[in-house]
Amino acid sequence: MMASPATTTTTTKTTATVGPTTTTGSSGFSCCPANGESSSIDDSIELNDSQEGGNNNTVYHNGLLEKQDYHFPKRPPVDIVFRDIRYDVKRFNISKAKFESKEILHGLNGSFKSGELTAIMGPSGAGKSTLLNIMAGYVSAGVSGMVQVNGKSRSHNSESFRKLSCYIQQHDALRPWLTVTEAMTCATHLKLGFGIGMEEKRKLIEKILFMLGLEQKGNTPTMGLSGGQKKRLAIALEMISNPPILFLDEPTTGLDSSSCTQCISLLKRLAQDGRTIVCTIHTPSALLFEMFDQLYTVVQGHCFYQGPTQEMLPFLGDLGYHCPGYHNPADFMMEIAVGEYGADVGKVIKAALKKYYEISSRCIDLESEFDDNVKSIQTGSIGAKGMEMCTMSKNANTIEYEEEDIFSKSKPASLVMQFLLLFYRNLLMTRRNYFLLCCRILAHATVATIFGYLYIGVGPNANQVLANYVYLYGSMLMMVYTGKMAVVLSFQIEMESLMREHFNRWYKLGPYFLSVLVLEIPVQIFCSLIYVVISYHLTGNYVNFERFCVFALFCIAGSICAQSWGFFVGATLSVKLAVFIGPILAVLFSVFGFCTRYVDITPVFKWMWHISYYRASFHGILNSVYGMNREDLHCPETQIYCHFKNPVLFQKDMDIEHVDMQSNLVLITLIIVTMYISTVFVLWYKLNKR
Ligand SMILES: Nc1ncnc2c1ncn2[C@@H]1O[C@H](COP(=O)(O)OP(=O)(O)OP(=O)(O)O)[C@@H](O)[C@H]1O
């Protein structure tokens, strides 16, 4: 049942006033007549029950399902000011055989304020995403300049800033197999920990889903949501911790116009509740465009315009560029930005810079007046709009907050709980997506049966030792390839989700990696056992339980070791390289097992024999079959002479009569541990490379 507004868990007392949830009208747009599409935007239509989210409190407004009386607890406003932001990338120039530096952003200045929805616009390749990445703290290497948060300097990869903000990237990177409620519940446990009760969490989830118009989608798997619903879910997941700052990279890309409107209306409403919301956007419709409070336009890495959205056309008009009637102002600005109508882009950039300096110098004056306790600031000198442009570092202090809500009680889940939650989530996803698991199990059973019948009953026969040798070698290949290839793309496939969740501080890398291992290792052990049990018996290798256990142990050890290599290769290389290099490595090391005698190996490659986990596990299974004081093999009466009747002779021929089983196991274990540590290191580097 949906919680009624009256049951909201928060007890918020705040002196901050929140603006009404209405959107800006179209009056500020000279080239968008009010009788056009914008004329309808102030219409509020009561939803009937058949519409999504039908509810007595639900009003359809600008495409947004407004949930009246539902608000997130207020957070202190956070204003961001940035000055002289430059971004350099280093690229290797092959023809000159040296690294070259290229500046992408050329000293951007500006501010993003609380309570406002800001759009970053500009032509393709202008630097929008780069600016957003820098502001969100997602990129810091190569960045110079200053970013201030509520008047305090912030480092470009500030950890504390990440606690205040969330970054929703272009690709939703959601978990397709989880239902909306499951995804929300898991994220709530991870983000808010267990200091607050289940009931409070449940109500919070209901409230967020209700506010975002997803309340009827709770049981829908994420992959069954529409593009717009996925975007809303991505926002809902981050709203759990109620961050005061939201960065969104192209939230409307791939959405139809009504979903776009819903998405931006939602952001607008979240901004009106006091948040700082910044998003990049491509060619919005006139309707969408005017929903933004502020506009920051980037062209060729320079600021082209910044300020209130309604003032963009007058700004361009002052420079002699007049928007034709019935023309979308956003389109017009983009056309000017790429030099259409004979526009001088450099002139606009200079004018934007001049305007910025004019306003900021007035802001400095105003701030000093503020410091001098001048109660009535004379805004007349710069005008009300100029005043709005100023980002007063004291802003946060001017609003008193006295809040008691679940966010103040919450603390992120502990590492152990993170691990348990992620493991549970993996289990859920595996249960839903059981097709892959079934394929893995079936593949092992099928190959085991085929191998078993190909080499049926060869195990005890002295005249079929070579056939058995091939079976054993084939078995090891099977273990290594399935172990490695089943996981080689694991991280590649979920790198985007991992990046998003990790960057937004859902969990640490350690619990995440452990939760993957704790699921993957038993699955691989189970699959290996299926193969071993079927093929071992069909080939007649079963002599006693001890030999079987040793055989299974080395098969599993080899397989898990290959799997650890698979994780490492997958975490390190790109998809194309990983699927190519993975098998190459397996082939390379398998050479040191099959018919390769140590004495015959070229000295320069002898080290490979020593570190080959394939060789170690293959020798282990060979020894479990023919070593360990195996009795004489059966020689058919029809055969006059069986050379390998005594299996030791075979071991001697293969130069493996002295297999040190313990050393082999230790080697395999060491390699497994090394590969896990290396994988964590590579993932950590990728996740924290800024
Ligand atoms: N790490 C990098 N190495 C080299 N070039 C880069 C790097 N990051 C960004 N660039 C370049 O900087 C420019 C701006 O890129 P950015 O992704 O910010 O553009 P954008 O405005 O978001 O474009 P779009 O709208 O097409 O996504 C592009 O020319 C891009 O190739």
Q: Which properties best describe this structure?
A:
49% helix; alpha/beta; membrane; four-stranded antiparallel β-sheet; disordered N terminus; Rossmann fold; ATP binding; single chain; transport; elongated; binds adenosine-5'-triphosphate; nucleotide-binding; six-stranded mixed β-sheet; 690 residues
Give structural notes.
This protein is α/β, with parallel strands linked by helices. The chain folds into two domains: 80-367, P-loop containing nucleotide triphosphate hydrolases (Rossmann fold); 415-688, no CATH class. The chain is built from 24 helices and 15 strands. Strands 10-11-12-7-13-14 form a six-stranded mixed beta sheet, with helices on both faces. Strand 5 and strand 6 (98-112) form a beta hairpin. The two termini are 44 Å apart. The site of adenosine-5'-triphosphate (ATP) has 11 residues, from strand 5 and helix 1.
Q: How do you describe this structure in short?
A:
By secondary structure, the chain is α/β, with parallel strands linked by helices. Helices cover 49% and strands 13% of the residues.
CATH homologous superfamily classification of the largest domain: P-loop containing nucleotide triphosphate hydrolases
Order the strands across the largest sheet as they lie in space: 10-11-12-7-13-14
Structural class: alpha/beta
In CATH's first tier, which class of the largest domain applies?
A: Alpha Beta
> What fraction strand?
5-15%
The CATH topology of the largest domain is given as Rossmann fold
Total helix count?
24
Biggest β-sheet strands, sense, barrel:
6 strands, mixed
Q: Mean of the pLDDT scores?
A: 81
The low-confidence runs, each spanning 5 or more residues with pLDDT under 50, are: 1-68, 373-404
Distance from first to last alpha carbon: 44 Å
Query: Which small compounds were modeled alongside the protein?
Result: adenosine-5'-triphosphate
Helix share, percent = 40-55%
The total tally of domains equals 2
Shape: elongated
What is the strand tally? 15
CATH architecture of the largest domain: 3-Layer(aba) Sandwich
